[in-house]
Design goal:
single chain, alpha/beta, Rossmann fold, globular
Amino acid sequence: MKIKSQVVLVTGASRGLGRAIAKSFNQEGARVVINYFQSKVAAEELAHTLGNHSIAIKADVRNENEVAAMVRQAEKHFNSPIHSLVNNALHNYQFDPSQNTQFEKLEYHDFESQLNGTLKGAYNAVKACLPGMKKEQFGRIIQIGTNLFHNPVVPYYDYTTAKAALLGLTRNLAREMGAHNITANMISGGLLKTTDASAATSEQVFDIIKANTPLQRVTTPEELADVCLFFASTWSRAVTGQDLIVDGGMNMK
């Protein structure tokens, strides 16, 4: 199914990477569901900018009932099931090297917070979208991961552990859902310049990334969003269960 025929749900789409992903899909003609939790003004402004082929809907991805209600509202609005799901929502995290980088200073609830936002959030969204995808015999599940669990140059324990768990979910979904023409893949980006989450990152850190990356630049949200388009397109129809690293070549697998 071509992107222009799809309804695409992007969680955490009001700002940063999610906003770039929503805009990219809209530019390709898709109908876009802009999920938000707290950023109502930003989400509604984005929906206004994208026009009639978009809708902003509030839902806390950690809440199964709210996610199910969001999907029902979106399906009713567009008179169509969700075809592509991008699990992008990130629960209250700042990429600040002075925080959450020393194991002995962490409590287990720090891990639980990220697991609930990342793993439970993706679980709820996938569960809500799967009936429609199965009925259509088409679906694209796209998870936003991180290159940090391949090479934890900064040991953000709680964040990277949750993203690693998300990869496990992704590959199990790929194995089971292939029979329904539903693929599941992950995009593991590097630190992006710049989003709200990376706003606490110093220019010195960005300069180090640039110096150690073959492309000699820091990846942007728009560049990662382009890879989401690939996984939702017909070009990736034989690709599932994969974790594609998008960081300018810093990590090569």
